[in-house]
């Protein structure tokens, strides 16, 4: 987004005097312009001159004027209006579920682009490229030309980008220049104004004659006029028309009491009345019919929508896609004609690699071609139905995605495209710089991130699980307490023997005291009656202690038996890289392997996680912890002490669909790259697939 400088601040004031000699009313108006708006001043003076020379709008009235220029270095109001309009747009698109980001474009575009390359990492630049794939450029024509030139020359955009430029000031020359500099698809929205069919009437609006410097297309001044100039002319006509109606209706309110100096000046009583007269009025000027609808907008504005198709060539032709006005809405179609089933009859040969859930065999009948299903197959079928092509699919002979060999050739899926044995390749195929050097990719159709597959901790049957609510040291303390209290009870009864009933044979031995204390602890009671006061006080304290311990044990046991928590110290890639107890690896020579290798060996990499991961993955030159296929890595996790680093989407599918529920995954929330469809280098289908 570009914040426009303050182009114009126009304030008009008026007063009325009476010229008795000529019986004319003199209306004095004033205007305030930005110091840089010299052309606005010229158009304003021309409009006043045209009104005084014609009697179409003013009959017995004449206009005089005063002009004041002010410093426009404080663009606060213009900025606020610009932000308010964009905020309304953001509110509407968010209601439709679209995600929109704002990007400010600095005045020095070259410096801005250079700073991006100096400060951003490759992943951040890739995400910035994605934001430029679909963009609305709110810029003036000069800034738009500079911006497009810079991003194209620095390879920040691809041929599948689509830009919409909205600006009222874009002329035909600007349109051709923007199309010449851009790639991809370009849509331009600009305001248009009616042109009289009769050339001789071009400078007439009814009986009102417009100065030829403004209406003659051959005049240099008219050729360089901006939209704001046209509206200034028509605004003066609209005000003059309101003045005339107020005078004609004899409803003019005196402005003698008004003063800009005195603070206690009363508001002008005719202000609201004048605004109502302006809203109800209308004129025919340079912008066409200028009037106000019920919502305060002009129902007669017209916008023209121009555009190009997708393509790599510069200087493509531009055509009119449609037009829009507040009354009838959009008239035309914004659909790119290039996509309307123009591939009917084309049969493409597709190479793939089996990778759940992207590509899986759904039917394998002897003597018949295999049938496939999965997310990538759904994408391919949707393209086939929309574009009209058919395809034949086969699996890469070596079941690999592809990597460069010692002799410079490529194997796997990418190799099939390099050697022209297949037209397109699709699977869980990520877009990497090395692959982009030998094949073409569509734009990404899904984000990619790295994840880790781990085995869940096994549940074992513990015969002593009933002891788990309390720690071993606590059990030892309880046992010691039982012995100690039993001994105290015996001593108290030995020192002060209780009076036993006649014929009672119960004795207060140490054994009986211990048994009595233990029985009361487990809430079973005892057989020895203790009647002395000291003993009963001791047992009362013991029973209270037993109640608290047993209640705590019961609560902890219930929680232990109903909630099973499997806690792991590995919750992220950072945790994985910092530990050495569980070895981990990935598929040898895969995109993940190369990504970790490049990051781990880069001395300027800020995150030490990759260097730690590379040391583990590269043990014994990569042969110790890495596998040749993803399925081998999954099996290694299931039956051994191992963690498999691979595509997060694939690992999540494996974990969810495992019949034994033996896996869990951890992922990286940052999308490192994306999945794309690979095509032969220079393929004519890349742009249409990307669109």
UniProtKB/TrEMBL annotation:
Residues noted as binding L-glutamate in the record, renumbered to the chain: 430, 435, 647
Alphabetized UniProt keyword annotations: Cell membrane, Glycoprotein, Ion channel, Ion transport, Ligand-gated ion channel, Membrane, Postsynaptic cell membrane, Receptor, Signal, Synapse, Transmembrane, Transmembrane helix, Transport
Site (Crucial to convey clamshell closure to channel opening): 570
Annotated GO CC locations: postsynaptic membrane
Domain of life: Eukaryota
CDD domains associated with the record: PBP2_iGluR_delta_2
Topology class, membrane: Multi-pass membrane protein
Stretch forming the signal peptide: 1-23
Any one GO molecular-function label of the UniProt entry: signaling receptor activity
Chloroplast in keyword set: no
SMART domains tied to this protein: Lig_chan-Glu_bd, PBPe
Site keyed Interaction with the cone snail toxin Con-ikot-ikot: positions: 597
Database matches in InterPro entries: ANF_lig-bd_rcpt, Glu/Gly-bd, Iono_Glu_rcpt_met, Ionotropic_Glu_rcpt, Iontro_rcpt_C, Peripla_BP_I
Protein name in UniProt: Glutamate receptor
Protein species of origin: Pongo abelii (Sumatran orangutan)
């Amino acid at each position: 987004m570009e914040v426009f400088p303050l182009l114009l601040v126009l304030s008009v004031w008026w007063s009325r005097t009476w010229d008795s000699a000529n019986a004319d009313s003199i209306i004095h108006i004033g205007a305030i312009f930005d110091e840089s708006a010299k052309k606005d001043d010229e158009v304003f003076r021309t409009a006043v001159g045209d009104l005084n020379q014609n009697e179409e709008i003013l009959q017995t009235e004449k206009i005089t004027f005063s002009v004041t220029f002010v410093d426009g270095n404080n663009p606060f109001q213009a900025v606020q209006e610009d932000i308010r309009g964009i905020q309304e747009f953001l509110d509407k698109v968010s209601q439709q579920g679209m995600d929109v980001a704002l990007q400010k474009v600095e005045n020095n575009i070259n410096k801005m682009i250079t700073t991006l390359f100096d400060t951003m990492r490759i992943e951040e630049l890739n995400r910035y490229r994605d934001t430029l794939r679909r963009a609305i450029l709110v810029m003036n024509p000069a800034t738009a030309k500079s911006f497009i030139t810079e991003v194209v020359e620095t390879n920040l955009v691809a041929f599948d980008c689509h830009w919409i430029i909205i600006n009222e000031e874009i002329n035909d020359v600007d349109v051709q220049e923007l199309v010449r500099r851009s790639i991809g698809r370009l849509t331009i929205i600009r305001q248009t104004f009616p042109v009289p069919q009769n050339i001789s009437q071009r400078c007439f609006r009814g009986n009102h004659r417009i100065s030829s410097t403004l209406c003659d297309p051959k005049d240099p001044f008219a050729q360089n006029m901006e939209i704001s100039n046209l509206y200034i002319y028509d605004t003066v006509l609209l005000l003059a028309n309101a003045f005339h109606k107020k005078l004609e209706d004899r409803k003019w309110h005196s402005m003698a009491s008004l003063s800009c100096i005195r603070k206690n000046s009363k508001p002008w009583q005719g202000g609201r009345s004048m605004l109502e007269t302006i809203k109800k009025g209308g004129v025919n000027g340079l912008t066409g019919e200028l009037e106000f609808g019920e919502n305060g907008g002009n129902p007669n504005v017209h916008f023209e929508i121009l555009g190009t198709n997708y393509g790599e060539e510069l200087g493509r032709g531009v055509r009119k896609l449609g037009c829009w006005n507040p009354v009838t809405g959009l008239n035309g179609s914004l659909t790119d004609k290039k996509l309307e089933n123009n591939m009917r009859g084309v049969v493409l040969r597709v190479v793939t690699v089996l990778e759940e859930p992207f590509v899986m065999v759904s039917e394998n009948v002897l003597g018949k071609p295999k049938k496939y299903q999965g997310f990538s197959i759904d994408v391919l079928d949707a393209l086939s139905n929309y574009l009209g092509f058919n395809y034949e699919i086969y699996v890469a002979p070596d079941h690999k995605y592809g990597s460069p060999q010692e002799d410079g050739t490529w194997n796997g899926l990418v190799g099939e495209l390099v050697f022209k044995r297949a037209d397109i390749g699709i699977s869980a195929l990520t877009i990497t710089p090395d692959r982009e050097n030998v094949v073409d990719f569509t734009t990404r159709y899904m984000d990619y991130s790295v994840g880790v597959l781990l085995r869940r901790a096994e549940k074992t049957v513990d015969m002593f699980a009933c002891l788990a609510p309390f720690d071993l040291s606590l059990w030892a303390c309880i046992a010691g307490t039982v012995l100690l209290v039993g001994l105290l009870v015996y001593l108290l009864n030995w020192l002060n023997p209780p009076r036993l009933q006649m014929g009672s044979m119960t004795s207060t031995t140490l054994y009986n005291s211990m048994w009595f204390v233990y029985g009361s602890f487990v809430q079973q009671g005892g057989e020895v009656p203790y009647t002395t006061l000291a003993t009963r006080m001791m047992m009362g304290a013991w029973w209270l202690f037993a109640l608290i311990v047993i209640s705590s044990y019961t609560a902890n046991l219930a929680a232990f038996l109903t909630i099973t928590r499997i806690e792991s110290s590995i919750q992220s890639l950072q945790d994985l890289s910092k530990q050495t107890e569980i070895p981990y690896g990935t598929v040898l020579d895969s995109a993940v392997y190369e990504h970790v290798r490049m990051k781990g060996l880069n001395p300027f990499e800020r995150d030490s996680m990759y260097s730690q991961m590379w040391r583990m993955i590269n043990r014994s030159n990569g042969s110790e912890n890495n596998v040749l296929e993803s399925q081998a890595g999954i099996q290694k996790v299931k039956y051994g002490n191992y963690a498999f680093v691979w595509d997060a989407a694939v690992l999540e599918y494996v974990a969810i669909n495992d019949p034994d529920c033996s896996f869990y995954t951890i992922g990286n929330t940052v999308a490192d790259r994306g999945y794309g469809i690979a095509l032969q280098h220079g393929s004519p289908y890349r742009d249409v697939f990307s669109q």
